[in-house]
Amino acid sequence: QWDCILCGCCASECNKLEADASDYMQPFVFTHAYRAADDSRSKDPMIHLKPAIANGLWNCVHCQECVDRCPKGISSFGDIESLRVMAMKKGLNEGMGPAHAEAFLLDMVEGDGRLNEIKLALRSEGVLANTTKLDIAYNLMKAGKMNPLHIFGGEKIEGHAELVKMVEAARKAEKEGTIK
After folding, report:
1. Is the pLDDT of residue 16 over 80?
2. d(CA 37, CA 46)
3. Sign of CA dihedral 80, 82, 86, 89
4. Where's the 4Fe-4S ferredoxin-type domain (predicted)?
């Protein structure tokens, strides 16, 4: 992140900016926000974190084009993820982005190890917001792309118990302060 030369290659390849730039800053902006928020000399990382959230931190679509195109090998995507983790730890977890991240974790770890798109949508946006998308759900079911019975879950993936143990060990180590 310290090597960023503000060339804009990350911004020129960003799929989110191409789709809708009105609610999202360029990836290099988030890289610099993370650099400032994570700096040990910064008295309050919230000064950098709150504007990042207000300017689309949770709107990154995870395409990682910014990482592929950076001539300096900087991972703006990684910095965005780090800012998100920092925001969650600081209690800035309001809105659909944090709800989506938490729902994803619940499905993968506390569920059966598989992403359940139906539950993910309900947990991320809520039941009321999803009632406006019933036509999409109907078309998905008709095309065989969605099974409404999947809301109840399915078989656990092979090795799910080990995944749960790893996540629990990481959470314990984080509480003990042995990992950041």
Report:
1. yes
2. 7
3. positive
4. 49-80
Which of 50, 36, 34, 40 lies closest to 90 in space, CA to CA?
Answer: 50
Rounded to whole angstroms, the Cα distance separating 129 from 45 reads: 33
Cα 136 to Cα 26: distance, rounded to the nearest angstrom: 31
Q: Quick check: 132 and 123 in contact, CB under 8 A? A: no
Q: Does domain 9-89 have CATH number 3.40.50.300?
A: no
Structure tokens at 5: 């030369």
Q: Are 96 and 48 in contact (CB under 8 A)?
A: no
Structural domain boundaries in the chain: 9-89, 96-176
- Terminal CA-CA length for the chain: 18
- What are the CB-based long-range contacts (under 8 Å, 24+) for 131-138? none
Enter the tokens of residue 117: 């798109």
- 4 near 27, Cβ under 8 Å? no
49-58 per-position pLDDT tens digit = 889 999 999 9
- Taking the C-alpha atoms of residue 118 and residue 92, their distance in angstroms, rounded to an integer, is 25
* Residue 64 CB-density burial (10 A; 0-12 exposed, 13-18 middle, 19+ buried): middle
DSSP state of 75: -
Convert the pLDDT of each residue in 97-140 to its tens digit.
888 888 877 777 777 787 777 877 888 788 888 888 889 889 98
